[in-house]
Amino acid sequence: MTWDIIRIPWTTYRGAEAVERLPEALLQLKDASTTAEAELASASIEAIVVVQGALYEVAVPTSICLLSMIQNTTDTARPYMLELLVLIASGEPADLELEYGNPRLADACMREVARGAAVYAHLLENGRAAERLHCIDLLGLCAKRDRTVRERVRWMFRRVLQSERDERIREFLSYWLRELV
Question: Would you say the pTM of this structure is higher than 0.85?
Answer without folding.
Answer: yes
